[in-house]
Design goal:
This protein is 15% helix and 40% strand. With 353 residues, it is an alpha+beta fold. Helix 1 (2-24) packs antiparallel against helix 2.
């Protein structure tokens, strides 16, 4: 039985490798729109026909955003939060995300605490996407003795809110970042479960780096729960796709082959991705690129059209029968391997009965 399982695994890998050859060679040049907005970690919220883009650097002391209706013409930066009151932030005002939840607007955002000298995620509330926002958590909602960043909101099918966040490599003894999940209270003011480890940066496959950045959860039209997240390798900053084998945010996460966005000889690197739907209905990936700026190439938010294949996400330039077949076969082989493993486990249990 063990030998058969190894043969099946080898055959699956060989078939995936054969299919991957044409897949990896397609669309070396990725189509995108450069917004011209100099920002890192862009996050776009659409509300009543207006698009609000938040991100690192739009307000150096606190958080800011720009807004517009056509994704081309943007306002000047507007400060939506200034440090005050219960917030003891001293810097590292990073990666604000704005979520509309139960009739109000919530910023999930990172900052460094004066009390602990650690980065963590706080949650802020406002009645308008332009603020002013006020801190509603007791300082960092993430563990206060550990660097944590890039919190994002996900509400599951039962209405339970979750925070998915990064446990930073800077606080981990081995220098490898972790991706974590915890349940939030209904009013988003506190964790109501212990954080669960989902995966590590090193789980990203060959040539993976030590970084876990920018989680964003998305459920495909066929119901598969995906997570976009960013890592670094020898080619630079890029966007990975992970998927939950049991459909739960705290479930068994696996890394799918291929990258959603990465550097090519035509395109700069970029990451910290999220998805939104444009005015014309196009599903769109927002990332910052290049990751390291220079005078000629500042870091800006770029928008990349993507396609939901049902199985996964691909950039629009790679959406073709070969790529769709590759991922359909990949997920089918994984499902078959899991069924075979379960059958083997069951037979082993019967033998010991």
């Amino acid at each position: 039985m063990r030998r058969n399982k190894k043969l099946i695994a080898a055959a699956a890998l060989a078939l995936c490798a054969a299919l991957a050859l044409p897949v990896c060679g397609l669309a070396a040049k990725i189509r995108f729109e450069d917004t011209g907005v100099q920002v890192r970690d862009p996050y776009v919220l659409e509300y009543e026909g207006v698009y609000y883009m938040y991100g690192t650097g739009l307000a150096w002391d606190g958080y800011g955003c720009v807004y517009g209706t056509d994704l081309k013409n943007w306002s000047a930066p507007v400060r939506v939060y200034s440090p005050e009151g219960a917030c003891d932030g001293t810097g590292d005002w990073w990666a604000p995300e704005c979520h509309y939840y139960k009739g109000a607007f919530y910023l999930f955002a990172s900052y460094r605490s004066a009390a602990t000298d650690k980065r963590g995620v706080g949650i802020f509330r406002a009645e308008s996407p332009l603020g002013p926002f006020a801190l509603i958590t007791d300082g960092h909602v993430t563990p206060k003795n550990h660097d944590a960043i890039d919190g994002t909101l996900y509400v599951d099918g039962d209405g339970q809110p979750w925070m998915i966040y990064v446990s930073e490599w800077t606080s981990n003894p081995d220098g490898i970042g972790d991706m974590m999940a915890a349940k939030l209270s209904d009013d988003l003011t506190a964790f109501i479960s212990e954080p669960t480890l989902l995966f590590r940066a090193s789980d990203g496959g060959w040539n993976s780096g030590h970084v876990t950045d920018g989680p964003f959860l998305y459920r495909t039209k066929n119901g598969r729960l995906l997570m976009l997240w960013s890592n670094m390798n020898s080619n630079g900053y890029y966007v990975n796709v992970a998927w939950s084998a049991d459909g739960r945010p705290d479930g068994k996460w696996r890394q799918q082959p291929g990258k959603l966005y990465e550097a090519t000889k035509y395109n700069a690197d970029g990451g910290h991705g999220m998805l939104f739907t444009g005015p014309d209905g196009t599903l769109t990936l927002a990332v910052h690129s290049p990751n390291v700026a220079d005078a000629e190439h500042p870091t800006t938010a770029i928008f990349v059209p993507v396609a939901d294949t049902g199985d996964t996400l691909v950039t629009a330039d790679r959406d073709n029968p070969l790529v769709r077949t590759f991922y359909r076969v990949y997920f089918s082989l994984i499902r078959f391997a899991d069924l075979f493993s379960g059958l083997r486990t069951g037979l082993g249990g019967m033998k010991n009965f």
